[in-house]
Amino acid sequence: MPVNLQQPWSIGGVEVPTRIVLAPMAGVSIQAFRRQGRRFGAGLVCSEMVSAAGIEHRNERTFGYLRVAADEHPLAIQIFGADPPAMAARMVEAAGADIVDMNFGCPVRKVTKTGAGAHLMEDPALACRVMEAVAGAVDVPVTVKMRRGVANGSRACLELGPQLVGAGAAALTLHPRSAQQMYTGEADHAVTAELVERVGVPVIASGDITSRTQALAVLEQTGAAAVMVARGAQGNPWALREIAEGEAFRPAREEVAAELVVFIREAVRELGEQRAVGFLKKFYGWYLGHGRFPKPFKQELVQLRTTEEVVTRLFAAAPGAAPIVERLEAELPTAEDEVLLDALPISVYGGG
Ligand SMILES: Cc1cc2nc3c(=O)[nH]c(=O)nc-3n(C[C@H](O)[C@H](O)[C@H](O)COP(=O)(O)O)c2cc1C
Fold first, then answer.
1. Is ligand 1 within 6 A of the CB of residue 209?
2. Which of 59, 74, 132, 299 lies at a CB distance of 3.0 to 4.6 Å from 98, suitable for a disulfide?
């Protein structure tokens, strides 16, 4: 029987309204991205990985990652750290996370050399100590996101997964590539199916899911509770809608421009103009590609010095976007609905 992607499910006591999870992506999953993901059908959204040490040391920029808006829930905040990050988990819970997700999959050396990320896949005893400490520190469910292992062909996740559940994990996400593979080759969801067999908690399947056909096939093949979408949603929230609702959807130019304008304005509010200018450049290509706008248009946007100029150019290229932006912005909760950590330095949200 085909799986119903709109059927609610739960992680611990947290109800998730659809079977589509928007992935954590460093340098991408800012609040604007997560709120948009919820609007387009993701049942659960996740922050990018946040350094536990950065949280504990009240690093100003790290704290900026902990903004939680009223329309994001349910929201997972992902942390990484190998010094059992119990205090960081408590702070993340206080910031309003419904779920604390632990990153045991990051293959980047900057992270693994500290003993965190994918390194933990090779040290099950430490991984379980980290898991136990975090699960014991917070009342919200704690979940783990893993790769299949470090070396190509590794099946470490199949041994570690059940141990993590024994140590308190309320759900597991598996991206079944090795850390060595980075993003090459294919995600091997036969491994996901084996993990599902071995644990009694929900498993989320991550890797190479960009369409409804793939989502349904992976759910059927693996018995996973949900699918996670990462690269497929970059500049393309319509992929989430297609997966959620079934109809292939080609957005009109006006709608693309409008979503991008709202995203730009939200990013500026969140990051400040100076950081937003650089952060947004990759999004122009992602949004305007897919044959939606001629290629030179993207080149033109990345040259502009302020986001105001970019917005002006987008409205000129797609005049019908303005009323859509107005409607979308009217529907967004205002910044006052945001929960921020009490100690958050005011300068972080100086943009309003
Ligand atoms: C730019 C980028 C940043 C990522 N950052 C994170 C991260 O912070 N935490 C994490 O657990 N996974 C991260 N991932 C991995 C994704 O969450 C996902 O597991 C992976 O991209 C496979 O899914 P996909 O084929 O749908 O892209 C990142 C992936 C990309 C492309």
1. yes
2. 74
pLDDT beneath 70: ranges in the chain: 1, 335-352
Ligand 1 near 26 CB (within 6 A): yes
Q: What is the pLDDT of residue 59?
A: 77
- For atom 5 of ligand 1, the residue with the nearest CA is 25
Residue ranges of alpha helices (H) inside the chain are 31-39, 52-56, 60-64, 86-95, 109-112, 124-137, 156-166, 189-198, 212-222, 237-245, 253-271, 273-288, 295-303, 307-317, 321-331
Smallest CA-to-CA distance from 280 within 332, 239, 234 is with 234
- Is 106 assigned a catalytic role? yes
Q: What is the structure's pLDDT at 247?
A: 80
CB burial string 45-81: b at 16+ within 10 A, e below: bbbbbbbbbbbbeeeeebbbbbbbbeebebbbbbbbb
Instruction: Give the whole-angstrom CA distance, residue 312 versus residue 304.
Output: 11
Nearest CA to ligand 1 atom 14: 25
Query: Helices 189-198 and 212-222, interaxial angle, to 10°?
Result: 40
pLDDT at 157: 98
Question: What pLDDT, in 10s, does the model give residues 31-86?
Answer: 999 999 999 999 999 999 999 998 988 877 777 778 888 899 999 999 999 998 99
Say what the pLDDT of residue 64 is: 73
For residue 130, how many C-alpha atoms fall within 13 Å in the half-sphere facing its CB?
A: 28
Residues with Cβ within 8 Å of 10's Cβ and at least 6 positions away in sequence, in order, are 16, 202
Burial 155-183 (b: 16+ CB within 10 A, else e): ebbbebbbebbebbbbbbbbbbbbbbbee
Q: How far is CA 184 from the centre of its chain?
A: 20
For residue 63, the model assigns a pLDDT of: 75
* Helix 273-288 and helix 295-303, axial crossing angle in degrees, nearest 10: 180
CA dihedral 329, 332, 337, 339 (to 10 degrees): -110
